[in-house]
Amino acid sequence: MTLLDLVAGLVGAEVRFVIVGGVAGVAHGSRRVTDDLDILYDTAPDNLDRLGALLQRWHAYPREIEAGLPFIADARTLRHAGTLTLATDAGLLDLFHEVKGVGDYHAAARDALTIDLPAGRVQVLSLDQLIAAKRAAGRPKDREHLIELEALKRL
Prior knowledge:
By secondary structure, the chain is of the alpha+beta class. The protein is 45% helix and 25% strand. The protein has helices at 3-12, 21-27, 45-57, 75-80, 105-111, 127-137, 140-154; strands spanning 17-20, 36-41, 61-62, 83-88, 91-96, 98-99, 103-104, 113-117, 120-124. A 7-stranded mixed β-sheet has the order 3-4-5-2-1-9-8, sandwiched between helices. Strands 6-7 form a two-stranded antiparallel ribbon. Helix 6 packs antiparallel against helix 7 (140-154). The relative contact order is 0.20. The model has no long low-confidence stretch (mean pLDDT 93).
């Protein structure tokens, strides 16, 4: 499976989301490689139901939890978990209610870019939003990525 398979599944299930993180960087020309898809999702009940159903079909399970423990990827879990890092049949997927420096899904969607991928039409953080998110996160890997993202902005 590829990251495009994850995107295609989300688009096909009509989940409302904005791509954040490394894949958003790649959409703006970043050369960093990532093996997971990070999304900021709409927490409206209908969207949680669709996303939860998709995650169950994909046998989603938290990456940081010992295998075999009970976990149900449903609307209730999605509503109460601010961040989930999941392994799925379709690939690695990180889910967020909010992204520091950007806000929730609605705040991100207002300024996000819409792009066409083979998997469908999706929204990704704008370059300015991505830079704000990396600054706010402040992790060493984010500070390193900022150098490249700010150079892309100058171009």
